[in-house]
Specification:
Bound molecules: ligand LLP
Shape: globular
Largest sheet: 9 strands, mixed
Number of strands: 21
Number of helices: 12
Radius of gyration: 23 Å
Structural class: alpha/beta
Helix content: 25-40%
Distance between the termini: 59 Å
Strand content: 15-25%
């Protein structure tokens, strides 16, 4: 038994005849040699192919795919999406500046988020974003005030919380009443009436995002029904909307999930929309993040030590919760694959990092044939990995590489300790 299970490798990674993993034509071990570990490795081709699948699923539809920047906000990744014609969904002033830095047009940006500051709102208004997705009655008043001060009219949608169960991890479910997101469905009508009265707001659309890593079509349709019901009520009230923003949340396969394909999801959504408005619905926006980049990245890490305490075997690797927080935060499963084949005895390991926390683990109880010094690829690390990293234990941020045209390009170098210290002051 070799204990090498390659069945979860994404299409852009294969094992060569020598048993070594090759990513888009580049040996992962040579990337590790050149750039060190830990390191994130992304595939430009995989991102482009996934985006193309969404575009193909939307042919003939009046739709804009706004890439959810939070999933992977590297400038190189954002620039790829800009070149492919994506819009962007942002949740902070920092994300706004990142997107603008790539040269993207502000009128393709929607601004979501539950706690937009006065400064962030002002800057987004000046930049000319397409729409604010407003998450509370108080935010409506604030945007109106800031817009008035700047002599502008702010385009707004209300993010409706439809109270629909996305059937996902509680930390990444957002569309239930107990979640902090959006304005409750039964209060939305009143909020729209108020928005329509405010002099510096221009009501544009409606927005709904119910959670992340959703692997069924049904929750999307349940939320859509709630949204459409509200749009009809608003029309009766004389409030006409010019777009629908149906959010993001489509899941990916980490291990054995079977999320709908972009085509299946889009066909189901547009089928419902066509029956609702046979003449064609207003333009539809989407805010997908994970589904576009999640399986286009891996985290490369090297085994520092193998150890056993009798009951448990540990592979202590050089990556940690600081580079991949998802396992400990959501008990998320990421496949772990040896980068080379080995004749070592297959053994069950907990794969843990150097950080001084018992919660610092990347995977548990995995059968691996490995030795100290071996490289591992932690799969599905293209989304919510590098972006959730921290400097805890004074661990510098690790490099991000993108394979483009058969070459590994360093899109962010390893952070140095000098850079970390540069921002700090002693008394
Ligand atoms: N739009 C809004 C308003 C959102 O809050 C999110 C994600 C998205 C779009 C994109 O969702 P996606 O298509 O990527 O599922 N850190 C967690 C995921 C948090 C998602 C937060 N909101 C994780 O690692 O699973």
């Amino acid at each position: 038994m070799t204990a090498v299970d390659d069945s979860h490798l994404p299409a852009w990674i294969q094992r060569d005849d020598g048993g070594r993993l090759v990513a888009d034509g580049v040996l992962l071990e040579s990337i590790a040699r050149e750039f060190g570990t830990p390191a994130y490795v992304y595939s430009r081709r995989a991102i482009e192919q996934t985006f193309a699948a969404f575009v193909a699923a939307l042919v003939g539809r009046d739709a804009l795919l706004c890439y959810a920047v939070k999933a992977n906000s590297s400038l190189a990744v954002l620039d790829l999406f800009r070149r492919m014609g994506a819009g962007f969904d942002i949740v902070s002033g920092g994300e706004l500046e990142r997107v603008l830095f790539t040269g993207a047009a502000a009128d393709r940006i929607v601004f979501s988020g539950v706690g937009k500051s006065t400064v962030e709102i002002g800057r987004a208004l000046q930049a000319g974003v397409r729409c604010f997705n407003v998450e509370s009655e108080a935010e409506l008043e604030r945007i109106d005030r800031v817009a008035g001060d700047l002599g502008r009219r702010a385009p707004v949608s209300i993010r409706v919380n439809p109270d629909v169960d996305a059937a996902t991890h509680p930390y990444i479910s957002t569309g239930l009443k107990r979640n902090k997101f959006g304005i409750a469905h039964d209060r939305a009508l009143a909020a729209y009436r108020r928005a329509a009265q405010l002099p510096n707001l221009s009501v544009q659309g409606i927005d709904c995002h119910i959670g992340s890593q959703i692997t069924e079509v049904a929750p999307f349709l349940a939320a859509l029904d709630k949204v459409l019901e509200l749009v009809d009520q608003l029309a009766d009230d004389g409030i006409a909307l010019s777009h629908l923003d149906l959010g993001g949340g489509l899941g990916i396969r980490y291990v054995d999930e079977n999320p709908p394909s972009p085509r299946t999801l889009m066909d189901a959504i547009f089928d419902r929309l066509d029956r609702w408005r046979p003449g064609g619905p207003p333009p539809v926006l989407f805010e997908f993040g994970r589904a576009l980049v999640g399986n286009a990245g891996v985290l490369l890490t090297r085994i520092e030590y193998l150890k056993s305490n009798g009951e448990h075997n540990f592979a202590v690797v050089d990556a940690a919760m600081t580079e991949l927080l998802r396992p400990t935060l959501y008990e998320a499963w990421h496949e772990v694959v040896p980068v080379q084949r080995s004749t070592a005895v297959p053994t069950h390991y907990d794969i843990v990092g150097p950080v001084c926390e018992s919660g610092d683990w990347l995977a548990r109880g995995r059968l691996l044939a490995v030795e100290a010094g071996d490289l591992l690829a932690v799969l599905s690390a293209g989304a919510y990995a590098a972006q959730m990293a921290s400097n805890y234990n004074t661990r510098p941020l690790v490099p991000e590489l993108m394979i483009s045209d058969g070459q590994a390009v360093q899109i962010r170098p390893r952070q140095s300790l000098t850079e970390i210290f540069a921002t700090e002051r002693m008394l």
